[in-house]
Amino acid sequence: MMIIFFQGRLIKAWEINTEFNFVDFIDGAWDEGNNCNSYNDPIIEEKISMRAKNVAPSYRCPYSIEQCTNSQQKYGQYAKLLLHPYCLIASEE
């Protein structure tokens, strides 16, 4: 942050030091179709699973195994903290 005096007034302003690109941070793990949800309540889990199957019978979680594999590599040792177990065990065959 820069602090500038202009006409006797203190002005605080942000200064860009480096370029920032969201592409470096947003990936397939942000997609709940790949990094699946789980619920502690088995009744809720079953209802949501059945609803998903009714809406999209061919849907499987993870939707994109490639995205899970990329996320496993990207996050390394932190993957187990960030990715759903289904995404962790997904591998391209």
Describe the SSE topology:
Elements: E1 2-6, E2 9-13, H1 42-55, H2 65-75, H3 79-82, H4 85-89
Antiparallel strand pairs: 1-2
Keywords:
single chain, 93 residues, alpha+beta, two-stranded antiparallel ribbon, 2 strands, 37% helix, elongated
Alpha-carbon distance between the two ends = 49 Å
Low-confidence stretches: none
Instruction: Work out the number of β strands.
Output: 2
Overall 3D form? elongated
H/E topology pattern: EEHHHH
Instruction: Provide the β-strand percentage band.
Output: 5-15%
Structural class: alpha+beta
Mean pLDDT: 84
Output the strand order for the largest sheet.
1-2
SS summary, helix count = 4
Largest sheet: 2 strands, antiparallel
Oligomer: single chain
Q: What helical percentage do the residues reach?
A: 25-40%
Radius of gyration: 21 Å
How would you characterize the overall build of this protein?
The chain is 37% helix and 11% strand. The termini are far apart. Strands 1-2 form a two-stranded antiparallel sheet. With 93 residues, it is an alpha+beta fold. It has a domain at 28-38 and 49-93. The longest helix has 14 residues, at 42-55. It has helices at 42-55, 65-75, 79-82, 85-89; strands at 2-6, 9-13.
